[in-house]
Amino acid sequence: MTHIPATTAATTASIAAEVQKRAHEEEQMTQYTQAELEGGWEFKFLRSNGNIFLKPEKRAEILNQEARAGWELVEIFDGRRIRLKRPSSAKKKDQALDFDPYRTNIGMSSDPLGASLALGLLLLVAVGGVALYMASR
């Protein structure tokens, strides 16, 4: 039987719980009006690894780029998450952009919690593989 260190399993469970908590929080904080839902709007969250949305210059730079794709700021959740919307008709200009208008992450990689979760799962697989190998000897 494979033995997974308790600290690895606990860390992975903690990361997964935090990812789920953030997703639930975003759902609860996100209220759309009937007009928005029926009016041909698209919505997205933009996330960063650091608190870049708290830096006015950096936030303005990112919002200016997003505006080229028709996105406008709805709200700032915290330094790592903002919510944007745009009219569905803005899709017509997407091919002329030099960035992905549907990107959801800014920075080197995606949400650090998600990256940590993936790393934790890889670690669990590796530990399990080593344990199976050792048990078969």
Provide a descriptive summary of the structure in words.
- This protein is α+β, with helices and mostly antiparallel strands and 137 residues long.
- The chain has a domain at 21-106.
- It contains four helices and four strands; from the N terminus they run ααβαβββα.
- It has helices spanning 6-29, 34-38, 56-67, 112-136, and strands at 41-48, 72-78, 81-87, 105-106.
- Strands 2-3-1-4 form a four-stranded mixed β-sheet.
- Strand 2 and strand 3 form a beta hairpin.
- The protein is elongated, with a radius of gyration of 20 Å.
Mean pLDDT, nearest integer?
79
In whole angstroms, the N-to-C terminal distance is: 13 Å
* Element string (H = helix, E = strand): HHEHEEEH
Instruction: Please provide the count of β strands.
Output: 4
Structural class computed from helices and strand pairing: alpha+beta
Task: Kindly report the oligomeric state of this protein.
Answer: single chain
Major β-sheet, in short? 4 strands, mixed
Strand content: 15-25%
Q: How are the strands ordered across the major sheet?
A: 2-3-1-4
List its salient traits.
137 residues, alpha+beta, 4 strands, elongated
Quick take:
The protein is α+β, with helices and mostly antiparallel strands and 137 residues long. Helices cover 48% and strands 18% of the residues. The protein is built from four helices and four strands; from the N terminus they run ααβαβββα.
